[in-house]
Write a structure and sequence with these properties.
213 residues; Rossmann fold
Length: 213
């Protein structure tokens, strides 16, 4: 977790955020004891805002409530690692059960005691093409839409295992990660050109697969 492909992308991004003055709580879903949501909606019907389960989410809910930005950092599985999916499903107590119909879709909002106003995705993939990240991008965008907060953008790094290489392109990616971290905190946004630099191909497709003409 601390040394994997996602961490290689996340760490410089966090470094940039800290340089701009942010306080960061880094939580590893895999280290947490989180039960899977069973869809009883106890947190909406019986005791609003209170999950029926007692586990490590009890410690996470207060941190999430006081946070301004929620960063989801994940590799692509099919589509998400199980622990990350369980954590996302268990966000339900933070959401107000009042349904709204906007732009052709049923939506809700975070409860008034939840400070989160922005959601950011940090996604990594082992496949060469960036399109492999489309599914987790849609998930993060939908979470923001459902909670009625801003989706500030996505840091997407395909063939992320190549970030271990020391060359001009990887150095450019690392510098851009720190830069967008600083910008997110200082300006509340992330420059599209920097995001493109982070996602740029590190090698050609032919080089990645060892193909020859």
């Amino acid at each position: 977790m601390e040394k994997g492909n996602t961490a290689r992308v996340l760490v410089p991004f966090i470094q940039g955020m800290k340089e701009a003055g942010a306080d960061i709580d880094l939580i590893y879903a895999k280290k947490m004891n989180i039960k899977g949501c069973i869809g009883e909606f106890h947190c909406w019907r019986e005791k609003i805002g209170e999950c029926i389960f007692r586990d490590d989410m009890d410690d996470l809910y207060p941190l999430l409530k006081q946070s301004d930005i929620f960063v989801i950092a994940t590799p692509v599985y099919i589509p998400l690692p199980g622990e990350m999916q369980d954590l996302i499903n268990r966000l339900c107590p933070l959401l107000d059960p009042t349904l709204e119909f906007r732009n052709g879709r049923t939506r809700i909002r975070f409860r008034k005691d939840v400070n989160i106003s922005k959601i950011v995705l940090v996604g990594t993939s082992g496949w060469w093409e960036i399109q492999n990240l489309d599914t987790i991008l849609r998930i993060a965008e939908e979470i923001a839409l459902d909670a009625s907060v801003e989706f500030t953008g996505a840091i997407l790094r395909p063939h992320s295992s190549l970030m271990t290489q020391e060359n001009e392109k990887t150095r450019e990616v690392y510098d851009s990660l720190r830069a967008v971290g600083r910008q997110l905190i200082a300006e509340g946004k992330m420059d599209r050109n920097l995001l493109k630099t982070i996602s740029q191909p590190l090698v050609t497709r032919e080089e990645y697969f060892g193909l020859e003409d």
